[in-house]
Design a protein that fits this description.
The protein is an alpha+beta fold and 323 residues long. The protein is built from twelve helices and eleven strands.
């Protein structure tokens, strides 16, 4: 069950928890079609179906706790063609058992297990009995890992009792238990922390199975790590990045082109996201906007303001005030 508000019509960033309870299976289909990426939903016991979703959106991260009886959800090529938006979803099984199928892999998830999948490729989620899960959904560029790398882990079970999943799982479970209090800057910081933990966990999983990664994907991951560590440097550029990795700028651009982005747009997006988080950070409330911008590599305040408004629809000052 993929119940995450990808394009919520009734929940916006920063709003309170929204609860939807299905009164019938047809109603559930309607809720899914209205609020999530397009999905095909079926159940062998539609007459006795029960389902509920509790959702909250924090900046770019959507959190949804899902409780439902037996059913299946399918993301088909035809449904994928209806939208050009790409998201990753991370499922944490809380109760019952779930089956995730994508990229010719199957992951059987028990309570505490985690698995990630990509909405731009077909997948199936199946629950034979009652189940409860937490779904964390975020744009494909929210992690400092190339999509090609993450694709190596789609529908791979990250066990509750092994590796960093034993740390990340309980953290996400606590988010599910405390959706009501995840408001304001603190909620945004926790959402950012969740993405950091997920990124670290995925890095760890890829380190365990490096043979899954192609050389180009390994290079892309190394480059993005380098960019992430040097965002504050205003001189960061394709030329400096290429030189640091002993490759040509043409090769660097090809690496990013394969993952659907450009070097410049990736740097800009990561810088703007970092500045946006800090502008809402109560610990930095007294820091001038220009100083925050400089911390993320913007040396021209006017350019920063224009870029911020283009990306988020508000000026940095208005965003800080919560306007």
């Amino acid at each position: 069950m993929t119940a995450v508000a990808a394009r919520p019509s009734h929940v916006s960033a920063g709003q309170d928890v929204h609860t939807s309870t299905a009164v019938s299976f047809d109603h559930w289909r309607h809720l899914v079609a209205e609020s999530f990426v397009p999905l095909a939903t079926s159940s062998n016991n539609a007459d006795g179906f029960r389902g509920r979703m509790r959702s909250r959106k924090l900046d770019r991260v959507a959190l949804v706790e899902v409780s439902a009886t037996s059913h299946e959800v399918h993301r088909t090529p035809a449904l994928i063609a209806q939208s050009n938006q790409r998201y990753f979803k991370l499922n944490l099984q809380l109760q019952g058992t779930g089956l995730l199928i994508q990229d010719n892999r199957e992951a059987v998830l028990h309570p505490g297990d985690l698995s990630i999948y990509d909405t731009s490729r077909p997948y199936t989620l199946a629950f034979e009995d009652d189940a409860r899960l937490m779904v964390v959904m975020f744009p494909w560029d929210a992690l400092p890992l190339p999509p090609d790398c993450i694709a190596q882990l789609s529908a791979v079970r990250m066990a509750a009792d092994g590796g960093l999943a034993a740390i990340v799982g309980p953290f996400i479970a606590h988010l599910a238990e405390n959706l009501d209090v995840l408001g304001g800057p603190s909620g945004s910081r926790l959402a950012a922390n969740a993405l950091d933990l997920v990124s670290t966990m995925l890095h760890s999983e890829l380190d365990v199975v490096p043979d899954r990664m192609k050389p180009q994907a390994l290079l892309a991951a190394a480059v993005r790590e380098y960019i992430d560590a040097h965002l504050a440097d205003p001189l960061l550029s394709p030329a400096s990045i290429a030189a640091a990795h002993f490759i040509s700028t043409r090769h660097l651009h090809n690496v990013f082109h394969e993952s659907g982005s450009t070097v410049a747009s990736w740097i800009r997006t990561q810088r703007l996201e970092g500045a946006r988080r800090e502008l809402r950070d109560p610990l930095l409330a007294g820091m001038p906007v220009g100083t925050v911008a400089a911390r993320w590599g913007f040396i021209d305040a006017a350019h920063f303001s224009r870029s911020f408004r283009d990306a988020f629809g508000a000026s940095p000052s208005d965003w800080r005030r919560g306007a």
